[in-house]
Amino acid sequence: MHRFQLRTTLCYGPDALEELSRLSGRRVFIVTDGFISKAPLMSRVRDQLGDAAIEVFDDVQPDPDIDAVVAGLRAYNAFDPQAVLAIGGGSAIDTAKAVRKMAIEQAVRPEASFFILPTTSGTGSEVSSYAVVTDTKTHTKLPLESPDMVADVAILDPEAVRTAPARLTADSGMDAISHAIEAYVGKHHNDFSDALAEKSLRLANQYLVRSFCDGDDMVAREHQHTAATMAGIAFDNSSLGIVHGLSHSIGGIFRVAHGRLNGILLPHVIAFNAGELSFMPAELTPTARRYAALASALGLTASNQRNLVLALSEWVKKIRQNLEMPASITQAGVDRSEYLSRIPEIAETAVGDYCTAGNPVPVTSRELTAILTAIV
Ligand SMILES: [Fe+2]
Prior knowledge:
The chain is an alpha/beta fold.
């Protein structure tokens, strides 16, 4: 038996923010960052919340650590909310998830309902049961997974992403693409996750570069926002793989945006998982066939299945180029010699990453070292 979990209500499209009016009159604990708490979006949120009692915890930092979660929990307990509203990208959402989960574990008060308003199109965190918190002592990213971290309501209002800078649009968009591709070939892929991953990629193909080039293109913003959430549902019900395993491990040491790392890794991981394309036997591996099927679903054409896999890899590279993203770790600003010296440590951590376990092909730290060396 398999399970495909549907729990979060998706409110989407222009004016989706109006859903927040349901929280009028309640005690609402908002988790966000210092920038968003002063942005015009917050005034719109307050307008919708009407006469709700509001407490804003806006001390969220990029790549939230355990200390930030503990500080959030302290503020949460002092306020005693009936609802939690996360507003932001992955960092704010993951902080809110971790804070709410810890509060539930304390079991002191009734569970607060959970609303998420993403301001980027990429993490899929608004529909996933995962959060990532950094352990600053060990420089590792700690994965948390729990049904308690699934939102009751995700509000996908394109206006909330309109002001996202182009760089952030590119990074988060490439993250969404990597979610869709990894979910499609992931160990636990299924017909439901396949359908969402395919549609997500087709939408990204049409709308990601458009929303990067013109942030005010609200048609593109709306569809790319949908694409990111679809990819989130897909990976939450399938699995991720070594793009994420490696990206988490590199990102724990070097401050490079998660989606940017994924974009660097993706073509190399496709080649590895497909069985190293240059040496690929006449008979494709099952994973290579999956990549070829995804390429077809995306509308790519080629003379044979092997070339379809290559076409998918080339498609990623083309999107990456159009988004003006780096193709290597040094292009992303990481010092070459420092990176090379830390590859053994990065590979070791990545082997044990929870996403690595979902990769369609088993990996050793030696194989991950080869990929890590190839992206220099
Ligand atoms: Fe991701």
